[in-house]
């Protein structure tokens, strides 16, 4: 019962949430942007964030990326697509931990056009 | 609504584990405090019950602490439940403020086990209770500014809550007979003071962490806090009714008073469980407006 309520709540409000702790949030590409090429995937935080897992997904599945930023807490995170991204919609998801110990997660989406 | 994190199965697990951890910590601290405050007034069997409760709660608290480490590691790992035993993830959790808090809480709960040692053991347990209270000031938004003020308020809030929560089970036992009325009356007097501390410290914390009254509405933190306060109000209603009506009725030897009082204390226990669930939700998935 509690679980259902919480899950219901999450569904209602999840879209409004992005980065709860470290107010951030410039991302490259910007969330919702349409771009022609993606030389890098980057995020900026105003407090150091330990980014632990990152995934880039397209409708076809996971897309390989290479991290430039390690797992130490940092205010800037950078990763590079292993290969040039073909046109399509992409979603970048990350999980990590804020400096106060809270587990954090977030995502941003973008579209690559011809 | 802003400042609410996504909730998945692991988060629900984390909230439940945290609520159990809160209950264990409050019962452990509260049992020790009860044994001190009522050392002279309570019967030996009631004091034994309070101490047994504290020791049992401390053991549960230690187990939950270990489980929470695993859940936290799983949450940050992005690997799902498998991350719970990943040494690297556990290392990250250990290095975080949760690691510091775990040291305080773990040592405190172990020290509470010293209640089993006759005579001086209770002093070790008292120090342990303080360590457990301090552990709560080592994580999350207690680390904000003004840190010293927040820490003192958290410790006071927790000790006052522990005094109340830890007394419920022993008092329910005492309420079986009219001879318990003296102890219940005395508790009512001490509790009036501790409830004042609880409310003042809680209000100041809410004010420091929300920044404004407007922020209470429209943020996940605000709504969860309002829910918590609403249940606290119900709890206070039961407590006041007990103090003003039922305890005097028990003392006067009214038939049915003992039964009514015990039932009322059971309702208080239920309210405490709901409050701790609300608090665990509040501190797990919402962000204080001041941090938004």
Describe this structure in words.
The complex is a heterodimer of chains A (114) and B (292). Chain A has one helix at residues 2-13; strands at 24-28, 33-35, 41-58, 61-63, 65-67, 74-81, 88-98, 103-112. Chain A is mainly beta and 114 residues long. In chain A, strands 1, 2, 3, 4, 5, 6, 7 and 8 form an 8-stranded mixed beta sheet that branches. Chain A starts with a helix and ends with a strand. With 292 residues, chain B is mainly alpha-helical. Chain B is 76% helix and 0% strand. Chain B has 9 helices and no strands. Chain B has helices at residues 9-37, 44-77, 87-95, 97-112, 121-135, 147-174, 181-210, 220-251, 257-285. The longest helix of chain B is centred in the N-terminal third of the chain and has 34 residues, at 44-77. The termini of chain B are close together. The interface between A and B is medium-sized, with 31 and 35 residues.
Strand-helix topology:
The complex is a heterodimer of chains A (114) and B (292).
Chain A: H1 2-13, E1 24-28, E2 33-35, E3 41-58, E4 61-63, E5 65-67, E6 74-81, E7 88-98, E8 103-112
Parallel strand pairs in A: 2-8
Antiparallel strand pairs in A: 1-3, 3-4, 3-6, 3-7, 5-6, 7-8
Chain B: H1 9-37, H2 44-77, H3 87-95, H4 97-112, H5 121-135, H6 147-174, H7 181-210, H8 220-251, H9 257-285
């Amino acid at each position: 019962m509690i679980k259902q309520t919480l899950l219901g709540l999450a569904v209602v409000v999840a879209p409004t949430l992005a980065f709860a702790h470290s107010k951030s949030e410039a991302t490259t590409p910007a969330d919702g942007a349409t771009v022609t090429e993606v030389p890098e995937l980057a995020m900026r935080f105003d407090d150091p964030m330990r980014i632990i897992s990152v995934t880039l997904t397209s409708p076809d599945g996971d897309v390989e990326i290479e991290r430039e930023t390690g797992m130490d807490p940092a205010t800037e995170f950078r990763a590079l697509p292993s290969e040039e991204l073909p046109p399509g919609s992409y979603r970048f998801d990350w999980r990590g931990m804020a400096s106060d110990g809270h587990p954090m997660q977030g995502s941003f989406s973008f579209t690559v056009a011809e | 609504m802003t400042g609410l994190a996504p909730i998945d199965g692991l988060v629900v697990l984390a909230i439940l584990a945290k609520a159990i951890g809160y209950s264990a910590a409050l019962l452990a601290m509260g049992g020790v405090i009860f044994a001190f405050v009522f050392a002279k007034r309570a019967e030996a069997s009631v004091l034994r019950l309070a101490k047994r409760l504290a020791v049992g709660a401390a053991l549960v608290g230690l187990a939950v602490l270990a489980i929470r480490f695993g859940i936290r590691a799983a949450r940050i790992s992005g690997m799902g439940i498998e991350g719970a035993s990943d040494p690297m993830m556990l290392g990250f959790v250990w290095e975080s403020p949760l690691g510091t808090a775990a040291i305080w809480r773990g040592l405190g709960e172990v020290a509470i086990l010293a209640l089993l040692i006759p005579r001086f053991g209770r002093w070790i347990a008292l120090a342990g209770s303080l360590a457990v209270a301090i552990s709560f000031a080592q994580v999350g938004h207690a680390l904000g500014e003004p840190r010293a003020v927040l820490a003192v308020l958290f410790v006071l809030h927790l000790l006052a809550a522990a005094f109340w929560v830890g007394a419920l089970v022993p008092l329910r036992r005492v309420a079986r007979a009219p001879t318990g009325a003296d102890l219940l009356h005395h508790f009512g007097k001490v509790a009036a003071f501790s409830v004042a501390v609880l409310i003042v410290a809680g209000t100041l914390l809410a004010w420091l962490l929300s920044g404004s009254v407007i922020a209470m509405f429209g943020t996940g933190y605000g709504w969860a806090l309002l829910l918590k306060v609403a249940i606290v109000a119900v709890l206070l209603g039961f407590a006041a009714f007990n103090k003003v009506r039922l305890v005097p009725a028990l003392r006067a030897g009214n038939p049915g008073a003992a039964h009514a009082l015990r039932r009322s204390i059971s309702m208080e226990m239920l309210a405490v469980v709901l409050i701790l669930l609300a608090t665990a939700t509040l501190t797990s998935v919402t962000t204080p407006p001041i941090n938004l």
